[in-house]
Amino acid sequence: MLYVRKGIFGVWLVAMICALVLSVSTVQAQPKININEAPAEMLQTLPGIGPALAQRIVEYRAEMPFETIEDIKKVSGIGEVTFEAMKEYLTVE
Predict the structure, then answer these.
(1) Is 33 within 8 Å of 90 (Cβ atoms)?
(2) Do the beta carbons of residue 42 and residue 58 sit within 8 Å?
(3) Helix/strand/coil (H/E/C) assignment for every residue in 15-50
(4) Residues 14 and 41 occupy one common structural domain
């Protein structure tokens, strides 16, 4: 019975490691979104950005393009927590 438990645990452990490797490689492969050019629909794929915030980003950049990714915090409703969640996916280039 002990060998069966070790076998099941081993299979489970291998499955979890494979899932982790696949999820990490998927995250690394995600391209960055240019916040000066992306349509509202694409902006909504960012963590914490819904339709209303996406529209505010589009309206803000129409008046003043973003010079750095940190400038997105000037948009009403985007604070430090939201910025930290999405900063790795942003670019202004």
Answers:
(1) yes
(2) no
(3) HHHHHHHHHHHHHHHCCCEECCCCCHHHHCCCCCCC
(4) no
Same-domain check for residues 5 and 23: yes
pLDDT block averages, 10 residues each, the chain of length 93: 58 56 54 96 96 98 97 97 97 94
Q: pTM for the complete prediction? A: 0.68
Structure tokens at 85: 């969640």
Domain residues for the domain of 7 are 1-30
Query: Into how many domains does the chain fold?
Result: 2
pLDDT of residue 26: 47
Reduce the DSSP state of residue 90 to 3 states and report it: strand
What pLDDT, on a 0 to 100 scale, did the predictor assign at position 30? Answer: 73
Which amino acid, one-letter code, is at 87?
A: K
